[in-house]
Amino acid sequence: MDELTAGLFNPFASEEVAPPNSSHWEAKRRLAEAVRQLNDLLVSTVASDAELAQASAQVEALNRTLADTPRLHGTLAYLKSGEHGHYGEINHELNAVGGQSNPLAPGLNMWLDGNRAYGTVRCGLAYEGPPGFVHGGFVAAIFDQFLGMAQVAGGQPGMTGTLTVRYLRPTPLNTELKLSAQLSRAEDRKTLVSGELRAGGEITATAEGLFVRPSRGMAAMAEMAVGNSGQ
Ligand SMILES: CCCCCCCC/C=C\CCCCCCCC(=O)SCCNC(=O)CCNC(=O)[C@H](O)C(C)(C)COP(=O)(O)OP(=O)(O)OC[C@H]1O[C@@H](n2cnc3c(N)ncnc32)[C@H](O)[C@@H]1OP(=O)(O)O
User: Fold this and answer.
1) pTM of the model
2) Which keywords has UniProt assigned to this entry (predicted)?
3) CATH architecture group of domain 106-231
4) I need a labelling partner for 123 at 20 to 30 A (CA). Which of 33, 39, 53, 129 fits?
């Protein structure tokens, strides 16, 4: 474990969503929730063209305001600022699948109980693929993140090498989905994790992930990413 992996799992180790660690994240979670609602409203509204044009102008004005505020580009920049918590806390807020403060993320919550990992997630209308059901790419993304966090319990966290998803039946929108996972094997740099996704007690998909700790180590991988986050 290193600076990045130390404490990574802690914020997730609770059945309740871990509360924000500062007023900054509290404020950002509120904004993220408002943007999630905006997403749902955008895909469902059949307002007039004039109303849509007016809404666009309002959002564009807000974007200009936020573009003029101080910004940090990427989780590593947040970590290096020293003001926004440890890596696990920052990832808990900004991760693309699990981040509470990232409106792209459906907001995956997860926790450990013994040697099993559990999680819950709900995907709104913006995640629709087949009519009324979650897009399969998001199901895979949820497994990638969930199994990716579960493998941290094995003590040798790595990057997703291979992820196999078996879609057994469609996964419904606007429904609390339940995840569970267990470590199948952890040897040297490879960790194998398998998991299930359930809706209303029925398994809709299963997955197996093989995670490989990079030969250079995770921290070196992160350093390699500096400059990729846009300015
Ligand atoms: C970016 C910075 C991140 C910072 C993180 C901070 C700490 C957080 C800590 C922990 C949290 C983790 C949370 C993750 C959750 C999200 C998961 C994702 O979405 S990850 C993104 C998608 N995945 C990739 O982009 C991988 C891209 N691929 C690679 O980087 C490399 O190919 C890598 C690391 C997978 C392997 O590279 P090698 O050079 O270290 O591997 P070699 O030495 O060749 O192989 C070692 C063993 O692994 C097998 N192997 C290698 N690649 C494999 C693969 N793709 N599938 C299956 N097996 C593979 C090989 O056959 C070999 O096995 P034999 O020892 O011979 O038995």
Assistant:
1) 0.92
2) Apoptosis, Cell membrane, Cell projection, Cytoplasm, Fatty acid metabolism, Hydrolase, Lipid metabolism, Membrane, Transit peptide
3) Roll (3.10)
4) 53
